[in-house]
Design goal:
Blueprint (H helix, E strand, L loop, with lengths): L2 H5 L4 H14 L7 H10 L5 E18 L4 E3 L2 H9 L3 H7 L5 E16 L7 E16 L10 H5 L16 E9 H6 L5 H12 L12 E9 L5 E9 L16 H15 L4 H8 L6 H10 L8 H12 L5
Antiparallel strand pairs: 1-2, 1-3, 3-4, 4-5, 6-7
Length: 319
C-alpha cells in the first residue's frame, strides 16, 4: 500500500501511533532535522518538510516537592482528587507541606507533506516540544483561592524563576488531512473560499500552499458537547510579511510596484491578496485601490487574479 492509499484507508490512527512512538525516540538536542527524517521514513512516497515552529505558549503542568520529586503529573486531576471538591480540605492538607506547581513551556513544530495539486491537498503534522519548569509555590499563608479552578490556575500569583524540572521532550499532537478538514462542517465558508481563491489565482503556480501557510487549529466543544476544530491560516514567514497600512496605499504605477514588491518579498505571486485577508497590517484598501486601477487605464494583474479580485470586490471577506 503506497502512502497516498494509506492516508485514505482509514488507518490514519496507526500512523499517528507510529509518529508518537518515534517522537519519544528522537533527541530534542539534535534539532529539527532528525525529527523530519524519522517522520519522512514513515511516509516514503511523500516529501515531508518542516514548515515552521511556533512558540510562546504554555499549559498547566504537575506538582513537585522541594527536592524535585514528582507528586503529580497533572495538577488539575491531583487537586480534584486531594480535595474531593472541597477547597478548604485541600488548603488544610497543604498547610504543612512545601510543594511547587509546574508549567509546560511549549513550541509547536509543523511538518507538512503535499499530497496533490490543490491548496488543501496536504497533511499537517503537529509535534510539540515541551519543557517542564517550576512555576510557583503551590500555596501561600496569605492567599486563599475561591475554588479549585482558582487554585489550579490563579490569575495573580508570584511566579518563580522557570527552573527546569525535567529534560525537554517531544510529543505528538495531531495529524490532519487538510482536504478532509476543509470539506467538513467544521470549516466555515470563508476558509473554504480562501483555499478556493488560492486554487483560482496565480498563487497556485508556486511550490504549494503548505510551503507558505499552515493552519493554526483550536479544539472546542459546541453546546451539545461535540468536539470540533477551528482553523486559521498562518503564514510560514510571518515575521517577514511587509506592512501596508491605509496611509501607505498608493495608486497607479506606485501601487503596482507596491504589490509586486510585496509578492517578491514574500516569495510567490498574488501574496499581497492572501495576506490582506488574514493580516490587519495589510489594508483592505489595497484591494479596493488595485480594483479601481484595473477598472481604469492600468493592467498589472494576470486575468485569473483579476477575476478573484473582482469577486472579492463584489463580496468582500476576511479571515
Amino acid at each position: 500500500m503506497n502512502t497516498a492509499s494509506y492516508l485514505n484507508s482509514g488507518l490514519t490512527t496507526d500512523l499517528q501511533l507510529r509518529i508518537a512512538e518515534v517522537c519519544q525516540a528522537v533527541d530534542v538536542s539534535d534539532g529539527i532535522e532528525p525529527l523530519v527524517n524519522v517522520v519522512q521514513a514513515l511516509l516514503p512516497d511523500l516529501s515531508v518538510t518542516h514548515a515552521m515552529t511556533r512558540g510562546g505558549w504554555h499549559r498547566l503542568g504537575g506538582v513537585v516537592d522541594l527536592d524535585g520529586n514528582r507528586i503529580a503529573h497533572n495538577i488539575t486531576d491531583w487537586a480534584e482528587a486531594e480535595s474531593g471538591g472541597d477547597i478548604d480540605e485541600l488548603m488544610f492538607k497543604l498547610s504543612d507541606v512545601r510543594y511547587f506547581a509546574t508549567r509546560l513551556n511549549g513550541q509547536t513544530h509543523y511538518l507538512v507533506a503535499q499530497t496533490g495539486p490543490l491548496a488543501s491537498d496536504f497533511i499537517q503534522i503537529e509535534i510539540e516540544q515541551l519543557q517542564e519548569v517550576l512555576d510557583r509555590c503551590i500555596a501561600d499563608p496569605d492567599w486563599f483561592p475561591d475554588s479549585i479552578a482558582d487554585f489550579v490556575d490563579p490569575i495573580d500569583f508570584p511566579r518563580l524563576e522557570p527552573e527546569p524540572v525535567g529534560a525537554p521532550r517531544l510529543a505528538f499532537r495531531r495529524l490532519v488531512k487538510v482536504a478532509d478538514l476543509i470539506a467538513s462542517r467544521d470549516t466555515g465558508p470563508r476558509l473554504r473560499r480562501f483555499f478556493d481563491d488560492w486554487d483560482r489565482s496565480s498563487a497556485v503556480e508556486s511550490e504549494g500552499f503548505c510551503h507558505h501557510w499552515v493552519l493554526a487549529l483550536r479544539e472546542y466543544q459546541d453546546r451539545d458537547g461535540d468536539g470540533h476544530l477551528s482553523a486559521k491560516p498562518v503564514p510560514v514567514l510571518a515575521s517577514q510579511v511587509p506592512a501596508l497600512p491605509d496611509a501607505e496605499v498608493e495608486r497607479g504605477a506606485g501601487l503596482a510596484n507596491q504589490i509586486h514588491g510585496f509578492d517578491r518579498e514574500v516569495g510567490y505571486p498574488f501574496a499581497w491578496y492572501f495576506h490582506m485577508l488574514t493580516n490587519r497590517k495589510v489594508s483592505h484598501k489595497l484591494a479596493e485601490a488595485v480594483h479601481a486601477d484595473l477598472m481604469g487605464a492600468y493592467a498589472y494583474l494576470p486575468a485569473r487574479d483579476l477575476r478573484v479580485l473582482r469577486d472579492w470586490y463584489q463580496e468582500p471577506y476576511g479571515i
